[in-house]
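Q: Give me a backbone?
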Amino acid sequence: MARSFGLPARMKQAQIAPMTDAKAPAASDSSRLAARLDDSDPPWPLRPWIMAAICALAGLIYYQVTKRPWLHPFERWQIAGATFVSVSSIAFVLGVELRRWRWAASFALLWGGILALIGWQSATSNVDGIPIEWPFWSGVLAVLVATPLFQTRRDVAPDWRFWKLWAMPYERLHSHAWTDAVIGAASLAFVGITFLLIVLIGQMFKLIGINLIYDLLNDEWFGWMLAGAAFGGAVGLLRERDKLVATLQRLVMIVLAVLAPVLAVALVLFLVSLAGTGLQKLWDSGFSTAALMMAVAAFAVLLANAVIGNGSDDRATNPALRWAAPVLAVAVLPLAIIALYSMMLRIDQYGWTPERIWGVIAAMIALAYGLAGLWAVVRGRRDFDDWLRPLQQKLAIALMLLALFLALPIVDFGAISTRDQLARLNAGTTKPEKFDWAAMAFDFGPSGRAALAVLARSPEKARADAATAALAAKNRWDLLGPRGPTLLKPFAERLRVVPADRALPTEAIDRIAGSYMCSRAKACVAVWLDDRRLGVLGQTAPGESLNVDFVTQNDAGQWVVGDRTVAAAGQKPAVDLSKARIEVETVSQRRITVDGVAQSGSFE
């Protein structure tokens, strides 16, 4: 196994030794290819190629796993498989070193499996099978926090006893976190540049009649492989030159640190102004106060860490920066309190929903960071960072564990929200016409739909009809109307064909039903224009504007939205304008009209 990762035999011992025991080999030709920050990490010239191959293979597997017919929903196994492949491959290439590379493989496979189970569970709970919900993002956050913790533990641990995470050196942990962020961002930028370059090359060759690259770019499998190879190769190159990355990291931190006094002064003025204006203007602004306060608090934490650096020797020396950092650390607390208070007011007015539960948890996390910052400033004064760093390390570990716990299907936020919303409905706090039937059907999971099934048997007709419509809806946008949900009629009843005696192929009906013209329209008309082309009109409600487009059958026999490309006419004969016969010709045009008013442009 070791040889497959380019590990020489004399280095096998280094991969299982502690950080301080392993030394790089003597300079060689391969060592000139690398610029490693840590002498314990020997050069690995094959790393970019290995990482590119791993990610390219992951991209191909991702494409094969997610391949499905057009408009066909993902199966649960597809969601779980795609999540496992993407998470495990990215976690591995970001965290692997020659030392203890088996640890990195185990770490990546473990988190890939965890996120796959979370994706499976989310797809099971959701009607539309979409896994990208709050639990999934919570799991992603847990992976992002766990990666630098793992890297630091791998570097310094004498063994695999992971429960001693709090004893790790903060300087190395902080450095890994920033380096991972810089490498990840730079690698994503490299993916974009790679695609731009390949597109330009493809277009260049297309000019001379060679369409190979252009055609490959139109194949989805090639796009995923190219993206994976570019990302993995970029990560490998940057890891082999992490001295340069460290310089880039320091540059990023210096640039961010310069912004610290700006935000510190703004926060002081803002909080002082609130003492005079009160909080009511925040609620009247129409913007989410809680989201804004937590975003500002996150920026305050980020900029404060940019100022204090990895350790006492790394902190900024500029007086303005030194005074801005404790101000930012303390300001997080009032921002978190305002965010939490705003969330609780919203919940008191409208009740609990999964989004509001997640919002309260985020506000509580910000509150914890705010309390840690205040405690550090009170104890350490200007040297507050010496107190703050160990607290932040413990908070990072707690955040990882909390995010993982919340991502797993242990606590059902949908059930909590369902009970609260039903209680408000039954108590009359929320009127039936104001009740969020769509959220109950599509946001609260199985608990919400079970509650709708009970409400559908209610003796109150309006409530029962609304619940029945919500249960029957295929998506939340089918629930229209200002006085509760109104279910659209079956598509066959909403579709009209002109001429009426000419039937539509089943494939054409499916394409029209899923089109933007008619998917949510109360009335839809398909007009035969020729044997392979239809004009389609849709209207969401009487009196509203019409959506008009074509649905055509391409050369492969598939019905697609849009007019098909008309083949260019043959080569026109050369003419002599001085002798040519000039005539005025009357040309008839065809277009679709509704009650005599043209609704489409002319076509042949």
